[in-house]
Design brief:
Number of domains: 1
Distance between the termini: 8 Å
Number of strands: 8
CATH topology: Creatine Amidinohydrolase
Length: 230
C-alpha cells in the first residue's frame, strides 16, 4: 500500500478529504501512533477491578503527560461494563466501577510530535467466556478488515461493508455509527475528512483510523478496537 504519494502527499492529493498540513509526514504519523500504543498499554496495566472510570481516566492522563503528550486532540476515554456500548460522543458520569469479571476499553487521541495518534483496545478482567470472546473478536475483526485494505484497490465504503459481514460471521453486531475517520498533523479537523466508511476512494496510508465497535447480540456489553491504516 506504500505509494509514491506518501513521500509527497502535500503535492498530489487525490481527494480534498485526504488533505494534510505542511509538516505532515507518514514517518511522524507512525511515530505518533507507536507512542500512543505505548501509552495505551501503560494505562491498561494500571487499571484494576474496583476502580471507577473517573479514577482510571485521571491516572491515565498522568501517564500521558509523563510520556510527553503535547495535547489531546480528543479526550482520553475509558469505558467499563455496560458503558462499552457507548460511542465516542456519548457521555458517561464516570462512576461506573470495574468488576471482577468485566470488560472495558481505552480510546485515546494524543498528539506527539505535532501529529495525531489514535489508539483503542478492549480488555477483560476475570474469566467470563463471552467477554473474553468479545475482546478477542473485535481485534480479529479489525485484522480481517485491515488485511482487505492491505490488498489495495478497495474503498472505505468497501471496508465497512466487509466489516459488517465479518462481524456477523463472528456472531457480533457491528455498530455502524462508528466508521473510522481522518487523522493527520494537528489539527486534521480543518480538512473535514469525514467518515472512512463513507469514503468512496482507496484510503491512502497514514491518514485514516480504522475503528471497529461491536456488541453482544443479547448481553449489554461490547468491544472496541482502532488503529492507523499505515
Amino acid at each position: 500500500m506504500e505509494t509514491a504519494m506518501t513521500a509527497s502527499l502535500t503535492d498530489t492529493v487525490p481527494s480534498p478529504r485526504e488533505a494534510v498540513g505542511a509538516v505532515w509526514s507518514i514517518e511522524a504519523m507512525r511515530a505518533a501512533q507507536a507512542r500512543s500504543w505505548e501509552a495505551l498499554h501503560r494505562i491498561a496495566a494500571m487499571v484494576r477491578p474496583g476502580m471507577t472510570e473517573a479514577e482510571a481516566t485521571a491516572q491515565g492522563k498522568v501517564i500521558l503527560s509523563e510520556m510527553g503528550m503535547e495535547l489531546a486532540w480528543h479526550p482520553l476515554l475509558i469505558r467499563f461494563g455496560t458503558n462499552t456500548l457507548k460511542i465516542f460522543s456519548d457521555t458517561a458520569p464516570g462512576d461506573m466501577v470495574l468488576g471482577q469479571d468485566d470488560i472495558w476499553f481505552v480510546d485515546m487521541g494524543p498528539v506527539f510530535g505535532g501529529h495525531e495518534g489514535d489508539a483503542g483496545a478492549t480488555f477483560t478482567t476475570g474469566h467470563d467466556p463471552a467477554k473474553l470472546a468479545c475482546a478477542r473478536d473485535v481485534k480479529l475483526l479489525f485484522d480481517r478488515v485491515k488485511t482487505i485494505w492491505d490488498g489495495g484497490a478497495v474503498t472505505g465504503e468497501d471496508l465497512y461493508r466487509a466489516a459488517q459481514t465479518e462481524a456477523e460471521a463472528l456472531g457480533w453486531v457491528l455498530n455502524l455509527d462508528i466508521q473510522g475517520h481522518r487523522v493527520g498533523d494537528y489539527p486534521h479537523s480543518v480538512h473535514k475528512g469525514g467518515q472512512l466508511g463513507r469514503f468512496d476512494q482507496t484510503p491512502n496510508p497514514g491518514l485514516w483510523i480504522l475503528e471497529m465497535q461491536i456488541r453482544h447480540p443479547i448481553l449489554p456489553f461490547g468491544g472496541f478496537y482502532e488503529d492507523l491504516l499505515a
